């Protein structure tokens, strides 16, 4: 078959695949088309045909290597574990700062009420102090908005990674449960976990009871 | 004409902490008649039920943003003259331009201090 005829055949097979699957043709399927075309190149080989064969072989090899590299990095861990953990922690930060700011504002409001019962410089000074507390508490709104931006970015990355991995034929469902670690840390490193989620953390009372149980 | 410190002021923000901060700062300035809404839709409903002397609104809220609220207020024959101050973390030039085009009276960028709030209020409702 002449080089142009091979080119035409290749184009037709890729178009047929696209017509069947739309824009979500997996690269592994394109590699399959390329490989099947190469097996039909028998007997009628010219110098140009050899060159095209070589290029098609390189393309197929590239696709195969890319697929292996993606499988090796276990892309399903990114959305199912790492991003899930990151967004949970960020949500916990927002909740904790909101609670703490609420307590600070309660105290400031009580100071303001106390100031109304005083006269002169003391009242003015307390008012000035409570004003500074209200001004400083602006931070919670800003940090909340910044964290929301980060969470949105993480979800965007998650969607892109999932789409890319699926394009290479990777099964994103084959994943450990969210929050599980892929490889357990050893020795003292296994004890470095940082703060736990509020619903999973031991309270001071739980820890006191645990310590008492050793007596 | 002296500023009526008893005029009802509507503050709009989806962060309850920010509502408390603005409300307390307004009280310190002598404005005790303050009501709250947590998004543009709720605010629009309140605005249509009673008269307010001033609206102080955040921008980033759902389902209705502060900018959408401002446009609704300016499009409403009965509400179009209500003074409107935007208080927001949105600080880009295009945001300020858009708010101005929509009819905002003044624009405060978060984080802000009490002095800035007082100055911006005075430019909109008069010195007090």
Describe this structure in words.
The complex is a heterodimer of chains A (215) and B (128). With 215 residues, chain A is mainly alpha-helical. Chain A has two domains: 3-72; 77-179. Helix content of chain A is 72%, strand content 0%. Chain B has 128 residues and is of the alpha/beta class. Chain B has one domain (9-125): Response regulator (Rossmann fold). Chain B has five helices and five strands; from the N terminus they run E-H-E-H-E-H-E-H-E-H. Chain B has helices at residues 16-28, 40-49, 66-75, 93-102, 114-125, and strands at residues 9-12, 34-37, 54-57, 84-88, 106-109. Chain B has a five-stranded parallel sheet, with helices on both faces. The radius of gyration of chain B is 13 Å and the shape is globular. Classes of the chains: A mainly alpha (215), B alpha/beta (128). Chain A binds chain B through residues 98, 101-102, 105, 108-109, 112, 127, 130-131, 134-135, 137-142, 144-145, and chain B through 13, 15-18, 20-21, 24-25, 27-28, 60, 89, 110-114.
| H and E string of chain A | HHHHHHH
> What is the CA–CA distance across the termini of chain B?
10 Å
Q: Outline the biggest β-sheet of chain B.
A: 5 strands, parallel
CATH class of chain B: Alpha Beta
Please state the structural category of chain B. Answer: alpha/beta
Query: What's the structural domain tally of chain A?
Result: 2
Low-confidence stretches of chain A: 175-182
State the secondary-structure class of chain A: mainly alpha
pLDDT averaged over residues of chain A: 80
Q: What is the assembly state of the chains in this entry? A: heterodimer
Describe the sheet with the most strands of chain A: none
Number of domains of chain B: 1
**What order do the strands of the largest sheet of chain B run in, or round the barrel if closed?**
2-1-3-4-5
